[in-house]
Amino acid sequence: MPSDSTDRTIKTLLAVGSVLVLAYSLVIAQQILLGVLAAVVLWGIYLVWRLISVLERIAGSLEYRIAQSEREPDERTARESEFDGGREREREPEHER
């Protein structure tokens, strides 16, 4: 994920580019909708890029959590087997009575 300063720089460049494209389309080409379309395409590309970077972060976090959960069951089953083994030993004499 980009840092705040990088993200701010990208947004500033997109804003300046959008204003320039709108000014060109209004003054030179005299077709405002063409300029709006170009600005929307620029911002759309930026938003898709942000979506992809956020999805990569989510996937990385899920991989980390899965790796952690795969390590923990070994420790958890060792603790549970010790705990359950103690219960089994306590119950055996009751069943024998």
Outline:
With 97 residues, the chain is mostly helical.
List the helices and strands and how they pair.
Elements: H1 4-27, H2 32-96
Helix pairs in contact: 1-2
Global structural class = mainly alpha
* Global Rg: 30 Å
Tell me, what's the shape? Answer: rod-shaped
Strand tally is 0
What do the pLDDT scores average to?
A: 81
Helix share, percent: over 70%
Describe the biggest sheet? Answer: none
Could you characterize the architecture of this molecule?
The protein is mostly helical and 97 residues long. Helix content is 92%, strand content 0%. It is built from two helices and no strands. The chain has helices at 4-27, 32-96. The model has no long low-confidence stretch (mean pLDDT 81).
